[in-house]
């Protein structure tokens, strides 16, 4: 996803910041929800992260190791820095 975002949805080079985003993925790999839960303070950075999550979908379907889970919710911090390459933590 990070590589995809850097190639397809780069953020404006003059901005830096970090945001927290929550993503919900369904058993079939489909994106069920994506939301910014803590803004970077820059709408352009927040939107670049959301565009990346949506554009990189669908994701890999769950394998047998995921058991009977219907969805997976992931909350991560995204950092935009020098040159505005993504750094996900």
UniProtKB/TrEMBL annotation:
Alphabetical UniProt keywords: Membrane, Transmembrane, Transmembrane helix
Pfam families: TonB_C
Compartmental location: Membrane
UniProt cross-references to Gene3D superfamilies, sorted A to Z: 3.30.1150.10
TonB C-terminal domain span: 13-80
SUPFAM superfamilies: TolA/TonB C-terminal domain
Signal among keywords: no
Chief site of localization: membrane
Spans traversing the lipid bilayer: none
Recorded topology in the membrane: Single-pass membrane protein
InterPro entries xref list: TonB/TolA_C, TonB_C
Protein name: TonB family protein
């Amino acid at each position: 996803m990070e590589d995809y975002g850097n190639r397809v949805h780069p953020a404006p080079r003059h901005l830096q910041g970090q945001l927290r985003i929550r993503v919900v993925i369904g058993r079939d790999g489909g994106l069920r929800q994506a939301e910014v839960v803590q803004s970077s303070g820059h709408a352009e950075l927040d939107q670049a992260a959301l565009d990346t999550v949506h554009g990189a979908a669908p994701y890999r379907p769950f394998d047998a190791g995921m058991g009977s889970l219907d969805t997976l919710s992931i909350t991560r911090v995204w950092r935009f820095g020098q040159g505005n390459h993504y750094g996900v933590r």
